[in-house]
Amino acid sequence: MAVDKSTQFRGVAIALASFAIYATHDVLIKYLGGIYSPFQIVFFSVLFGFPMMAVFLLRDAKGASLRPVYPMWMALRTAIIVLNAATAFYAFAVLPLAQTYAILFAAPLLITLLAIPMLGERVGLRRGAAVCIGLFGVIIVLQPGVTAFSLGHVAALVAAVCSALNAVIMRKIGGEERAVVLLLYPMIANVVVMGAALPFVYQPMPGVDLLAAAIIAAFALIATWLLILAYRMAPAAKVAPMQYSQIIWATIFGTLFFNEALEWSTALGTAVIVASGIYIVFREDRGGRSATTPVLRNRTRPGPSAMPSVSALPTEAEAAHDLRALPTTDKA
Questions:
Q1: Residue 182: pLDDT band by 50, 70, 90 thresholds?
Q2: Domain boundaries, position 253
Q3: Do 22 and 301 contact (CB within 8 A), yes or no?
Q4: Which pLDDT value is given to residue 64?
Q5: What is the DSSP string of 39-108?
Q6: 17-70 pLDDT per residue, tens
Q7: Could you tell me if residue 331 is inside a domain?
Q8: Helix H or strand E encompassing 195
Q9: Partners of 144 in the β-ladder
């Protein structure tokens, strides 16, 4: 069923609002990261997220058990989400906002690479070249040999890899696992792991900082819901590139709140990474160019969300398309 242009426009506008909320969510993470350990921030933000998520979990009327259909994949995804939260929270705390986003924006490039062994995706010369160019953009941002390569940079790179792995795993199992299972296991794991580390890093939090942790949880949930709504209203090829609007907010917020100046290397490298990511999205959107469209079907955003999102699940129309689709030769 075709969607009219006005609905598509609203979908794109909602996507922009979603990513603006995500960017504000990240500002709060950076603020708290200047005071507290990432383990403590993740712990409390997930803890505050449980009551909000409970509303969603109770709406799952399916009577099936909480046993995963794919236990090994689910265990791997859970570990990845825990690592992603800790490393991304740390990266946002110690690196400039724009620089952190630039590195995290490499996730779609990594998804394209990881989809080859994990999904059987065939990447042709053009998309392969786009990935290489995008990864060169990451090198421009990092400036090896010119600027010091810190633990924050390592954390951001690890977070980008984790985001990509999570997206590919969701593309592989998301259509068969219950949403409640996809949400519950990573949330419990975050509380257990971060809670185990808490005695070693804990610092008393005044009420205003506890409120900030609660707002982080609320913003993550609201932004995810808006992103799902956007994908229902507009084509993925129009929604997905909107994630790059976060770099605008990062530049504004970094200047206003953290006295951060946008370096030429970050600006140039980000432009290269964004151009490559957008090219890959539009190449996947062209029929017959990709058998699995791993980037186009990705419903999550690279970033420090401590609460897992099920927005990578395919829509009913996409699932039906997958059943009809035959293997294709990728010439992209």
A1: confident
A2: 5-324
A3: yes
A4: 62
A5: HHHHHHHHHHHHHHHHHHHHT------S--SSHHHHHHHHHHHHHHHHHHHHHHHHS-HHHHHHHHTTHH
A6: 999 999 999 999 999 999 999 999 999 999 998 887 777 666 665 656 778 888
A7: no
A8: helix 179-201
A9: 147
The predicted model scores a pTM of 0.88
8 A C-beta contact, residue 134 and residue 106:
yes
> Per residue in 292-328, pLDDT tens?
788 877 767 776 666 666 554 444 444 444 433 334 4
Number of domains in the chain: 1
Residues forming a β-bridge with 147: 144
How much is the pLDDT for 320?
Answer: 41
46, 190 Cβ separation under 8 angstroms: yes
Distance (Å, rounded) from C-alpha 36 to C-alpha 41?
7
Stretch (H or E) spanning 247: helix 246-258
Provide the Cα torsion 53, 55, 57, 58; round to 10°. Answer: 160
For residue 330, being part of any structural domain is answered with no
Task: Supply φ then ψ for residue 123, to 5 degrees.
Answer: -105, 120
Question: Would residue 209 count as lying in a domain?
Answer: yes
Residue 318: the pLDDT is: 45
- 69 vs 64: CA distance, rounded Å: 11
Compute the distance between CA of residue 14 and CA of residue 234 in angstroms, rounded to an integer.
10
